[in-house]
Amino acid sequence: MGKIRVLPEVVASQVAAGEVVERPASVIKELMENSLDAGARSLEVEVRGAGIGLLRVTDDGSGMDREDALMALERHATSKIASAADLSSVLTMGFRGEALPSIASVSEFTMRTRRADAAVGTEAVVKGGRLVAVRDAGCAVGTTIEVKSLFYNVPARRKFLRSEATETAHLDRAVETVALAFPAVALHYLRDGRTIYRAASSSSLAGRVREIFGGEEADVLLEMPDTETGGIRVSGLVSRPGGTRGDRTRQFFFLNGRAVENVFLSTAVREAYRQMLEPGRHPAIVAHISMDPRAVDCNVHPAKREVRFRQGAAVRDALRGPIDSALREARAAWLRPVQAHVTSRLGSQPEIAPPAVVRGAHQPELPRPVLPEPVTSPVVTSAPTAEAGPAQPATTRIPPEEFRLVGALTRRYLLLEGAEGLVLLDQRAAHQRILFERLQRGVAGGAVASQRLLAPEVFELPARTHEVVADNLEVLASAGFGVEVFGGRSLKVEALPDFLAGRDPRRVLEDFAAACAETGARVHGAAADDAVRRAVTRLAVEADGARDEREQRALVAQLLACELPYCDPEGRPVMLQFSWRELDRKFGRA
Q1: H or E element, residue 421
Q2: Do 332 and 346 have their domain in common?
Q3: In this structure, is residue 392 part of a structural domain?
Q4: Do residues 191 and 239 both lie within one domain?
Q5: Which residue range is the domain that position 20 belongs to?
Q6: Do 294 and 311 fall within a single domain?
Q7: Is the pLDDT of residue 550 over 70?
Q8: pTM over 0.70
Q9: Average pLDDT over residues 45-52
Q10: Beta carbons within 8 Å of 541's beta carbon, 6+ residues apart
Q11: Distance CA 504, CA 366 (A)
Q12: DSSP collapsed to 3 states, 96-130
C-alpha cells in the first residue's frame, strides 16, 4: 500500500493556518484588510481575553450574498485575482484566498453579511473547519465576523502563545497599523469592553496620529513634504531628532496602503538620521509610499508583510529625500530665532577677536578650548600662505536679541536664558560638534583654513600608523593638514587646521590614523563620517571649557552656526531646554 496520501481538507487548512494565523493579531489584521478590500468606510474592532476569547470585526462594506459567503470559506477562493498575471499588479490588501478558511479551521467562526440590494443577510457558522449552519440573518449592510476560542482544537499552537500582555500589545499594533494606513476610514477599537479609541474619518494623517497616540507623541512629529521621484510618491510624518524612542514600535511603512517591511526602507531612515541619534535610540516615522505595483513583489510571504523591490536603491533614495527635507526645515526653524543671538547678562556687545596665531610646533597643548572663527565666517575659502600669514576674518558684533548668557556651571556647562525658558549647554559636546563639522567639511572636499607651523616638524610613526596616514594624504590636505611623506616611516608636518592650533602634530596624526583604521585604512563614502566621528572623540578638548565671557559667547555663536547644533557626533544632546511652563509646574505654580 502506498505511503503518500492527500491530506483531508480540514487538516490542510490547519496546516495553512500555521503560516497565516500566527497569533490573534494575525486574525485581526486579515479580517480588517478584507473589510478594507470590501470598500468599508467604518470599522469596529472588538477583542476580549487577548484575542483568545473573542475577535470581532464589523464593517459597512459591500457585503456578500449567500453564494459568495460560502465560497469565501473555501481555500484559495478570492475575488482579488483571476490569473498568475494579476500577481504582478496587486493593489488589494488580500489576494491569496487563504485567510478565512485558515481562521475558521482553528476557531469557532461566525460570519454575518448582507449586500445593500438584499432584503436579508446570511449567517454562516463554522467550527474547527466544519460548516455547521447556514441561515438567513437580519443584519446591517456589510459584514461582521466573530472568532471565538482561537486555537481550541490546536492545543500545541495555543501553548506557544505569549503572555496576555504581549498578545494584547500585538493586537494594539495591528489595529494601529490599519488606523494609520487608512486615516479616512473611521475606526472604533474596543478591548475587554472598554473603548481604547474612537477615531473619526480624517483627511489628516497628523490628526489620526493625535487620536491614536495622543498629543505628546504627535507634537514631536514633523510633516514630510509630499514628494514624487521617478514615479515613487512619498508623504508622511517623521520625528524630530529629540523625539526618539528605545524601540522601533513607532516606525510604520505603507506601500500602496499595505504595511510592509524592507531593508531599503529602514536604511533610508537610518541614513537620514545619521549623527542625530544616541546609540539605541530610534526615530518615529509614518511613511506612505505609492508606486507602480509592477515594480514590487508582495507575494514573498503568506503574511504579505515582506516585499521585494525591483529597484530598492531608488525607493531608498525617494524616501530619504523627504525625510532630509523635513529635518532640514526643522533645523532652520529651530535656529531662526536664535542664530547668533547670544548676549551677556548686561546686554553688551563685545567684539570677537580673530583666532590666535600658532606660536610654535612644540607649544604644549593649550589648557583652554581653541575656538573656530566667528559666525559670519565659518569657513575660510583658501588656506593662507606662509607669506600672507594666517587668515584674519573681519571683526563681528553679535546682535542682542533672543538669548542671554547667564553664566557657567562648574566650568562644564553654560546656562542661557531665552524667551521660552532656560537652556543648559554642554561645552565639551559643543566643541565636539564644532570640530566634527570642520573636519567633516574637509573630508567631504570643502575648504578649511590651515595655519603653518613656525618650523616644520619631522618624526617617525609606527608602520601601520604611517600607512594609514600615507593612504589619506588627500583627505588630510582637504581638512587643513600640511603633511607629506619624508622617506621611510617619517612624515613632515608643515601646517595644521587653524582650529587645532597649538596641538602636538604627532598626537593629532596618531589619533586621526587610529580613527581611520577602525573603519578601514582609506576614508571614503559612509566610512568617512565614522572615521571623523572617532577622530573627534580623540581630539576633543578635555580641558575645563571656555574661561571667560568672551570665549563662552564665541563658543555658543560657533555652535549655532553648525548644521546640527543640538547633538554631538554620537547623537547625544548638546543642549537641553527647560520651558518656563515646566519650571512653573515643578515649583507648583502651573
Answers
A1: strand 421-426
A2: no
A3: yes
A4: no
A5: 7-201
A6: yes
A7: yes
A8: no
A9: 97
A10: 368, 369, 370, 428, 431
A11: 10
A12: CCCHHHHHHCCCEEEEEEECCCCCCEEEEEEECCE
